[in-house]
Amino acid sequence: MAENAGHLVKVGINTSQGSYTEISGINDVSLTRDRDPLETTHFKDTTASKLRIMGLKDAKISMAGNLDLADSAQSQIRSRYSDGASAFVEIQWDGSTSTDGEFKVVSYSEKASVGGLVEISAEFEASPLTGTGAVWG
Predict the structure, then answer these.
(1) 52-66, strands of its sheet edge to edge
(2) Fewer CB atoms inside 10 Å of the end CB: C or N, the chain?
(3) Distances (CA, A) of 9 to 76, 97, 127
């Protein structure tokens, strides 16, 4: 198995799929994929356990880093949060192999402490679950 160093990761954003602009200052990112389990247990079941089928898929991205007011990509995050329009987000876990999709920015925050940098964080939720890369499965 080949490991990847975190410093190789690239995160980009665009208003449409393709030609992503790398987001400056981001130093933490995570992609979470979920599926809704749907219980199908019925009275005639004799297993004494719940039965399930898998329902809808979902994906979320969380990212955080240092505020850069001059960065156009960070500006897109704030704009997509304000106007509710879709943001297309790309993550390159190894610096070249791409996973991307259409997301809505559901939260955006800034914080600062006296002895530190001004930091940002943003949460994205897939809408709809489209894109490229094996993680979307």
Answers:
(1) 21-22, 10-14, 87-92, 98-111, 119-126, 52-66, 26-39
(2) N
(3) 20, 10, 23
Question: pLDDT digit string (tens) for 64-76?
Answer: 999 999 999 999 9
Asked whether 57 and 37 are in contact (CB, 8 A), the reply is no
Of the chain, the percentage scoring pLDDT greater than 90 comes to 67
pLDDT tens readout for residues 74-113: 999 999 999 999 999 999 988 888 888 899 999 999 999 9
Residue 3 to residue 135: CA distance in whole angstroms: 17
Distances (CA, A) of 74 to 19, 84, 99, 128, 136: 16, 15, 19, 22, 25
Phi then psi for 115, rounded to 5 degrees?
-95, 15
Are the C-beta atoms of residues 100 and 88 closer than 8 Å to each other?
Answer: yes
Residue 45 has pLDDT above 50, yes or no: yes
Q: Which two tokens stand for residue 85?
A: 């329009």
Residues β-bridged to residue 14: 88
